[in-house]
Write a structure and sequence with these properties.
With 422 residues, this protein is of the alpha/beta class. Helix content is 32%, strand content 17%. It contains 13 helices and 15 strands. β13, α12 and β14 form a beta-alpha-beta unit. The longest helix has 43 residues. It is flat and about 130 Å long.
Length: 422
């Protein structure tokens, strides 16, 4: 056993050693933390950003959604600049009025062999420069004074033209050249503000048999002889006219699958439909937009359209039509649609309880009659105050869910505060 002084000396030595080791441990930990920071910075510096890992093909699809941000995108990196300048579709939309001559020529060259979308206002500038590319015209929008442009394109062949928008500014369709010869593959035609063609030259004599979609917006009355216009390939018809019934009586469209209508509340509306009940039996989708004025005339037209298109399976209806769809007394417009499977009620504004009460009443009535439950979609009005919310645990909404196959909310804020009374 050692002496007391020796033991004290050893203890002091061990304490000093302990302090040295603690200092070394602290230094190592500081060095470790610093090295981790260096390593993280090196990893970040060497890592490839997620967007730069995307293949060029996917980048192109993203850039096409940001077509009008080209000037910003080309400044991001050399790769992005190369992708944008090497993609013809990025330069295929040309506005003859807004773009300068230099820009138009530059776009045309950079578009290479991509299908072209041209917007023409009144006349085609530099026709000798654009007409040699007529085989690439895919979409053509003509606004303003169209006579000169139509006269010009009637003398050429547009084999690739699929979409055509024509603004007539109140002139007659009689002057429109036959598209069957100059645009034999036309699929979509949008006619804006045209007077109807003369009876001896109906619309079907102007458009090719390949037409699949027709949109007509006009304040003029279009009246033709019954079954005088044949559209063998037409699948979608959209009318924004005063009275759609005369046009529906005049067309023969065995493949028609979708009909959309926007009332304009101008003039009188037909009370009856002289066509057969099975004329539009293949139409599965009906869409009625908001009416300018809620009145009895529009309600009667809605009922009539439900009889005309009695075979529909899906309907997009504005909330204003609910009183006619599910009236408190007597049969409703929906009773004519025996094949209906789903409803999309648009323009819902929270704070008004009546639409929910009408829906619950109508769907519970269907259940009592043993009719099928429908799939329901409620679409909120775009201008609706988002502060007001829907309480999905409320008894009225619960009843609505119970009498529907499903209920989907689109654009309707949900949270507890709103109370829907019984």
């Amino acid at each position: 056993m050692g002496s007391l002084s020796g033991a004290r000396a050893m203890l002091a030595h061990l304490k000093r050693r302990e302090l040295q080791l603690l200092q070394e441990l602290s230094d190592v930990r500081k060095a470790l933390a610093a090295q981790k920071v260096v390593l993280d910075e090196l990893v970040k510096a060497s890592a490839v950003p997620y967007i730069d890992r995307l293949p060029n093909e996917l980048l192109v699809e993203i850039f096409l959604l940001l077509r009008y941000e080209r000037r910003t995108l080309v400044q991001v990196s050399r790769r992005w600049r190369a992708v944008i300048f090497d993609t013809g579709r990025m330069w295929s939309e040309i506005d003859m009025l807004c773009d300068s001559l230099t820009m138009r020529k530059s776009y045309l060259e950079r578009s290479r062999e991509a299908p072209l979308t041209l917007t023409i206002r009144s006349v085609i500038p530099e026709p000798d420069f654009f007409l040699p590319h007529a085989n690439r015209w895919h979409t053509l929008n003509v606004f303003g004074f169209t006579e000169v442009t139509l006269s010009l394109i009637s003398q050429i062949i547009l084999p690739s033209l699929r979409h055509l928008v024509l603004d007539g500014a109140g002139t007659s369709l009689y002057d429109v050249p036959a598209m069957c010869s100059c645009a034999p593959a036309l699929k979509h035609l949008n006619l804006i503000d045209w007077e109807p063609p003369l009876p001896h030259r109906p619309l079907s004599h102007i458009v090719p048999e390949s037409l699949e979609e027709l949109l007509i917006t006009t304040s003029h009355d279009w009246n033709f002889e019954k079954d005088s216009m044949h559209f063998p390939s037409l699948r979608r018809l959209t009318l924004d006219v005063g009275d759609p019934i005369p046009f529906l009586e005049a067309i023969v469209a065995p493949k028609l699958a979708s009909f959309s209508f926007t009332p304009d509340d101008k003039g009188s509306i037909s009370e009856t439909f002289t066509g057969t009940r099975t004329k539009f039996i293949n139409v599965s989708h009906l869409a009625l937009s908001d009416m300018w004025e809620v009145n009895e005339q529009n309600f009667r037209l809605f009922k009539l359209l439900c009889r005309v298109f009695c075979g529909i399976r899906h309907a997009d209806i504005h909330v204003a039509y609910l009183p006619t769809l599910f009236p408190n007394r007597g049969p409703g417009a929906i009773d004519h649609c025996t094949c209906i499977e789903s409803l999309d009620i648009q323009g819902i504004v929270l704070g008004s309880f009546q639409p929910f009460q009408d829906l619950v009443y109508g769907f519970e009535k269907r259940m009592r009659l043993g009719q099928r439950k429908l799939h329901l979609k409620l679409t909120g009005d775009r201008l609706m105050d988002k502060v007001v919310t829907l309480n999905t645990s409320d008894a009225l909404f619960q009843r609505l869910q119970e009498c529907c196959a499903s209920v989907v909310l689109d654009g309707i804020p949900v949270s507890p505060p709103l109370y829907l009374p019984m």
